[in-house]
Amino acid sequence: MAGDPIRFGILGCAEIARKVSRAITLAPGASLHAVGSRSADKASSFASANGFPPGARAYGSYDAVLDDPDVDAVYVPLPTSLHVKWAVLAAQKKKHLLLEKPVALNSAELDLILEACESNGVQFMDSTMWMHHPRTAKMREFLSDSQQFGELRTVHTCFTFAADPDFLENDIRVKPDLDALGALGDTGWYCIRAILWAADFELPKSVIALRGPILNRAGIILSCGSSLYWEDGKVATFHCSFLENLTMDISAIGTKGTLRLHDFVIPFEESKASFSAATQSGFTELVTGWVPKPSEHVVMTDLPQEAHMVREFSRLVASIKNNGSKPETKWPTISKKTQLVLDAVKASIERGFEPVEVAIS
């Protein structure tokens, strides 16, 4: 990337910020410049432990990062309940915004964030990392091939992990005042995004939450699922949970082909990822096997997916900063659609598993 690197500030020292700090270090066109915490000592320790370069700044407040004139963009991994405050303030300070998911507690909050970004001319992107892996582009090629895949009819996604007792008692994702969306906002966000991605971001007409969600004592969702319905007959389902073995599946089924993978959120290996593609599948003569067999497609990468994300975000920011370009609207649009479906699933649970229509606001 030509020109000076985009200088990042990080608001908070969350565990995920360690991963994104590394990604900023690895990504061409990006550099770590500042981190802010409620404690200057904590910020300094985080910078030392996570490869911040000499001269990087460690601040004892989030405001100080936003007031630093040398910060071009901020990554915000704060609890979801704090997103609207700090994301809006970041946009008002003309800082481009890479926001951790779920991006907001509801679409009304997200609208405030996106309006602030638009009115201040800053780039918005959520940090759904798998969207930026080279494998994702290769899978899109298969789904878009009318001869190989045909027309999408069904999508099933699942993201679960077995949280330990300490997580289930103390993690911010099980606290109503911090991340009130629980598993739906965490693992469910990925499932909903995967379904929308497979459907080329066409919103479903309605959703119906599946019966039997599991909630903790505070009413936070630990496990749930939903079905999604389109006017043309497409159907999708997802299941998300903090209570089951680690699973990250997508199955997208078309009239002529099927796409499958088992590690869509975080690949089994950092430097390569694969997916299975089947076309015109059938049985052998005596129905003792499949013909043709599904093919395995391996995609190599020289950067982890989170560094690809940072590189793309930095490219967009550099184009705005150096060339006067307008912010790319693709990413806020995708975030808004994901949030709308998430809101509808939550509403269906709260209304006793009634159908809830999904409508762009």
From TrEMBL:
Ranges of residues in domain GFO/IDH/MocA-like oxidoreductase:
144-260
Spell out the PANTHER family in the cross-references.
OS10G0403700 PROTEIN (PTHR46368:SF4), PTHR46368
Q: What name is this protein filed under?
A: Oxidoreductase
| Family the UniProt entry places it in | Belongs to the Gfo/Idh/MocA family.
| Highest rank taxon of the organism | Eukaryota
- InterPro entries given for it? Gfo/Idh/MocA-like_OxRdtase_N, GFO_IDH_MocA-like_dom, NAD(P)-bd_dom_sf
Q: Which Pfam families match?
A: GFO_IDH_MocA, GFO_IDH_MocA_C3
Q: Name one GO molecular function term.
A: nucleotide binding
Q: For the Gfo/Idh/MocA-like oxidoreductase N-terminal domain, which residue ranges apply?
A: 6-125
